[in-house]
Amino acid sequence: MRNLRNRPAGLIRAGCFVCILCALLLAPHAAATQTAQREEGEVIPRLREARQRAEEGQTREAIRLYTELINRVRMTARMMAVAYHDRGNLYVALEDYDRAFDDYQRAIELNPDQAESYVGRAQMFARRGQTTRAMDDYARAIRLNDTLLEAWYGRGRVYERRQEYAAAKRDFQRAIEIDDTRVDVLCALGLLHEREYQIIEARRLYERALEVDPNDPWALTLYANLLRGQDQLDEALEILNRVIARAPDRLEAYQVRGSIFLALGRHEEAEKDFERAFDIQENHVLGFMNQGSIHARHGRWDQALYYYDRAIEANPEYVDAYVNRGVARRQLGDLTAAVSDFRMVIAGKPDHANAYYQLGLTYELMDMRRRALSLYEQALQADPAHAPSYNNRGSILMRQAQLDAAAADFQRATEINPRMIEPHLNLARIHEHRGEFDKALAACERAARLNPEHPSLPMLRGNIRFALNDYEGALEDYTRAIERGIQTRDALQRRARAYEALGDNERARADREALE
Questions:
Q1: Residues 280, 258: contact at Cβ < 8 Å?
Q2: How far does Cα 142 stand from its chain's mean position?
Q3: Which of 404, 385, 398, 386 is nearest to 425 (CA)?
Q4: Which one-letter DSSP state was computed for residue 39?
Q5: Which of 106, 138, 104, 100 is nearest to 119 (CA)?
Q6: Contacts (Cβ under 8 Å, ≥6 apart) of 405
Q7: Would you call 443 helix, strand, or coil by DSSP?
Q8: HEC string of 56-112?
Q9: For residues 7 and 253, what is the distance between their CA atoms, to the nearest angstrom?
Q10: Cα gap 343→511, rounded to integer Å
């Protein structure tokens, strides 16, 4: 589920208490020796006491101590800036972001050379959606201290939010060069590599994160999600079960595990996981998306549309919600509205392969195959590993009798996603048309292992078996088609021929009479 790439991260650490204070102790910037001595004897111990309370989790007590220092103790501007900065960090911990912003602002006014405070204020700007001002602050922090990891990481997150992924990767990489033991940074860079289908590099970064902390729930969830994309479902489930056992309120773990259950056809378990995720964070955009997916899976498109609308209300910038809403609208017959949703996504995100693909599908339904073909090609330009676009482009080429090109597309789709059934069936059709019945049957058997109940399988495989003189096998397939109401008249006619080939003229006659 690529919707994990929009995981809302908590605020990054706004700066280390100790590093600022140590710098001041090594080089006190006092107007006079007397002031420095007063700070050494009175201010520093009280700062340390406040810091100790913060480290022990006594956040409000620590804020009280910092406030007393700020209001009652005379100290230099540089030392006062430390106190404001530290208190701002504590307000962040309490999610009191307005007060945090005010404290970082005051720290910068008192000491414009304190890089960590620019990082803190940048985070507040980013929270308010003022990304340009956030970028300015991160850049200032980097100019003051180019080894300040939080500045590189924070700016990378803003680049990521602005979809400037190459710049984000550069900043995350620089942060890792400074410290390669930060799990959050390793995971952030891994996600960007995964987004660009650089799976080997993403896996390396997740594994490095798990070397640092084998029990980190976010790293484990990302690693499991990567395994899911590589069809290593059993291993992914084992990891997620472990995550959920240790962190039963881990939203993302339920979302990924639910998607695996969906892929395995275990719909009740998927629904329970998505419901659990929804309980944890009711108004989370992925919760609405998952609820929509459950209803879509059962063909309840009205309810699916409702939840996709809710997802858009929760986050109007979440483009996958528009794609899913477009699919729901198409299923409900509102093709014009579906086209509008897909085009809206493409206008804002011209590298969104699935939006091109879904728009192509919609145009096919409107009998605009030439335009659909162009859209599948645009999808493959955006993502050369988009298996559904290879399959659908191949289907159009097959109808145009361009069998070699179509077969190449179907083969590529099976290589990218071996679990996708349609390209196997399409390859079987091309081999059947060419008279390559052994190859056609092998393709059908691959499809049958993926989904023995696929509606296209009985008639296709029955015809191929008949051509190979496997009349009993053909009878089995034609009978299954008749029992399931698939192409019933055609299946009766062909089964009659199979009965005749086996010398069972009485049953052949019965099938023909059933047609009258």
A1: no
A2: 30
A3: 398
A4: I
A5: 138
A6: 394, 397
A7: helix
A8: CCCHHHHHHHHHHHHHHCCCCHHHHHHHHHHHHHHHHHCCCHHHHHHHHHHHHHHCC
A9: 12
A10: 50
Alpha-carbon distance 423 to 275, whole Å?
Answer: 33
Cβ of 280: how many Cβ atoms within 10 Å? 16
255-262 LR contacts (CB < 8 Å, sep 24+): 255/1, 255/3, 255/4, 255/286, 255/290, 256/1, 256/4, 256/221, 256/224, 256/225, 256/228, 257/224, 258/290, 259/1, 259/228, 260/228, 260/233, 260/236, 262/293, 262/297
The C-alpha atoms of residue 121 and residue 103 are separated, in whole angstroms, by 9
pLDDT of res. 98: 92
CA distance to 179, 216, 297, 460, 501, per residue, from 448 (Å): 50, 39, 21, 11, 25
Positive or negative torsion for Cα 248, 249, 250, 252: positive
Instruction: Determine the Cα–Cα distance for residues 42 and 27; give it in Å rounded to an integer.
Output: 17
For the segment 5-35, what is each residue's pLDDT rounded down to a tens digit? 434 344 555 445 545 554 444 444 444 455 5
Q: What whole-number distance in Å separates Cα of residue 206 and Cα of residue 217?
A: 12
User: pLDDT confidence of 283, banded at 50, 70, 90?
Assistant: low
Side-chain half-sphere CA neighbours of 353 within 13 A: 17
Residues 6+ apart with CB under 8 A from 63: 87, 90, 91, 94
pLDDT of residue 402 exceeding 50, the answer is: yes
Cα separation, 488 vs 486, in Å, equals 5
Query: CA 141, 145, 147 angle in degrees (round to 5)?
Result: 115
Summarize the confidence of residues 198-211 as an average pLDDT: 93
Tens-place pLDDT, residues 133-169: 999 999 999 999 999 999 999 999 999 888 788 999 9
Instruction: Give the three-state DSSP class for 480.
Output: helix
Asked whether 447 and 428 are in contact (CB, 8 A), the reply is: yes
Q: Are 315 and 324 in contact (CB under 8 A)?
A: no
| HSE, side-chain direction, 13 A CA sphere, residue 91 | 21
Distance of CA 506 to the CA centre of its chain: 59
Packing angle between helix 115-127 and helix 131-144, nearest 10 degrees?
170
Asked whether the CA dihedral 137, 140, 142, 144 is positive or negative, the reply is negative
Half-sphere exposure for 206 (CA within 13 Å, toward CB): 22
> Residue-wise over 53-86: b if at least 16 C-beta within 10 A, else e?
bbeeeeeebbbebbeebeeebebbebbbbbbbbb
